[in-house]
Design goal:
The chain is of the alpha/beta class. Helix content is about 40%, strand content about 10%. The chain contains 19 helices and 14 strands. The strands form five sheets. It has a four-stranded mixed sheet with strand order 2-1-3-13. A hairpin with a 2-residue loop joins strand 8 and strand 9.
Length: about 475
């Protein structure tokens, strides 16, 4: 595998040089962070309430390093081409129109690898053939939602192709007929991530969002392999390979790492940086707080999750807080004395930089008792959309498809990033497994849903039955506020 990786890298460099030469030296337009930029927004979303220990995502502005889960940035392989339905060539003239693509990061296509060079060449050829120019517009994340939604409500959309967060799009914007359904244009599975349109961005049987990236957001458990070996703890990978990485073994490992190594009567190593990861726990048991327009607090799977979180709190499994903010769990892990930390894959670069003396491993979040597979979590999903006021959505979708319809040099989504960040093949496979099982949670659709209150009551030791009874009505009220408008 290592030799294949080296060969692939050499081939990639050779292709880059060859394609750059064929492109006529237009590399001066590489522009910003392009398709590789978006990971921070998705990573932040993963951390917002759960996977990143209550917001360990860091930036929300899309400027972070690593991969974008929904803009593959060159790692756009791995889709099953056997059922692909590429759109036949179309002939139309757009009359010099400027197509504005709006996101909270600059989506200009860079020329940083052979895949992106091919995309850039496709765009240039399409611009010439169909008489248009494509402009990529970045709006600061802090003001993005307000600006974009205001433009849609005013009937003057800020762009032709606009990235929107699911939480404020479905059902709110879709119910007002502000977006085109685009599922009839996304049949080409070589280009379009079918889950995005047909599952994650669906409403009343139609798909309203699309993405050319085949990769998903990867969240799971980072662990300090060096500390694990020092403490004589069974390798976490052994549990994964035995299909025995579950809540019980997770708690067992965490407790084994809670040690007083210098016999001064105080713990000086810990097993878990924080237990504030309700989102990750929910998807690990294939549960959710909401189901469409109904609350699901008393669903058996959700009750299992709440009991698990209660166990972590009452048995004091995680390292106690020292009064820090949302970055505290990550800082605990960086100290080198804490074995496990729940986070998003985009964080690996920073962890490696700050922990040069430690070997960092990765495993999926452990399975819950009702789960059929390992999962990563995305509670603030986002995708590209086309406003209803924009004419000829079929032409825009055709252009987006043809830009991204390339023969990738990569074997699977996010390959370049994963192989540059992990030396251990098990870590790479675990990350791929977690990403393949990504699930989207929708509770952030409801602004008044008392998420933090629910988690707070559970971690304070209140019984699960009491918490469920207390919050069923408020959660349903929060849902009704959105769905019954």
């Amino acid at each position: 595998m290592r030799s294949n990786r080296i060969v692939m890298t050499i081939i990639g460099l050779m292709l880059t040089l060859a394609l750059a030469a064929c492109s006529g030296g237009t590399g001066g337009n590489s522009g910003g962070s392009g398709n590789n930029a978006g990971s921070a927004d998705n990573g932040a979303n993963a951390g917002g309430n759960g996977a990143g220990n209550g917001g360990n995502a860091g930036a929300n502005n899309g400027t972070g390093a690593s991969d974008d889960a929904n803009a593959a940035g060159g790692d756009n392989a791995g889709a099953d081409d056997s059922g692909s339905q590429a759109t036949p060539d179309m002939d139309f003239d757009m009359g010099g129109r400027t197509i504005k693509v709006v996101s909270w990061w600059d989506m200009t296509i860079p020329e940083d690898n052979p895949d992106n060079i091919a995309r850039k060449k496709n765009l240039e050829a399409l611009e010439k053939k169909h008489n248009f120019k494509m402009q990529f517009i970045a709006i600061d994340y802090g003001e993005y939602q307000q600006k974009v939604t205001a433009s849609l409500l005013a009937g003057e959309p800020i762009g032709d192709i606009v990235r929107l967060g699911k939480s404020y799009t479905i059902p709110a914007l879709v119910k007002q007929d502000l977006l085109w359904p685009i599922d009839e244009y996304t049949k080409n599975s070589k280009v379009f991530n079918q889950k995005v349109t047909n599952e994650f961005m669906q409403y009343n049987g139609r798909g309203y969002g699309f993405s050319e990236g085949q990769g998903n957001l990867i969240t799971g458990i980072f662990y300090n392999r060096t500390l694990m070996n020092q403490l004589g703890i069974k390798p976490l990978e052994d549990y994964v390979k035995a299909d025995n990485w579950n809540w019980d073994t997770f708690v067992q490992v965490a407790k084994e790492a809670n040690k007083d190594t210098n016999n001064d009567g105080k713990l000086d190593t810990w097993g878990l940086a924080s237990a504030g990861f309700m989102d990750a726990a929910l998807v690990s048991d294939e549960a959710a707080l909401t189901n469409g327009n109904k609350e699901s607090l008393d669903d058996p799977k959700t009750v299992e999750v709440l009991n698990f979180l209660s166990r972590l709190a009452t048995e004091k499994v995680a390292r106690p807080t020292e009064g820090g903010d949302w970055t505290e769990p990550g800082q605990f892990f960086r100290q080198g004395n804490t074995l496990m930390y729940a986070g998003a894959i985009y964080e690996i670069g920073g962890l490696k930089t700050d922990m040069k003396d430690y070997d960092i491993g990765f495993v999926p979040f452990p399975k819950g008792p009702s789960a059929s597979a390992y999962h990563s979590v995305e509670p603030l999903f986002q995708a590209l959309t086309i406003p209803k006021k924009v004419e000829h959505p079929e032409q825009l979708m055709y252009i987006w498809e043809k830009i991204n319809d390339i023969d990738s040099i990569y074997d699977y989504p996010d390959q370049a990033s994963l192989e540059s960040n992990f030396e251990n093949e098990d870590d790479i496979q675990n990350a791929r497994t977690a990403g393949d099982g990504m699930l989207v949670l929708d509770h952030n659709t409801f602004p008044k849903l008392p998420y933090n209150d629910i988690l707070g009551d559970i971690t304070k030791g209140n019984s699960v039955s009491t918490v469920v009874a207390k919050y069923k009505a408020p959660v349903q009220a929060a849902i009704d506020e959105v769905y019954k408008k």
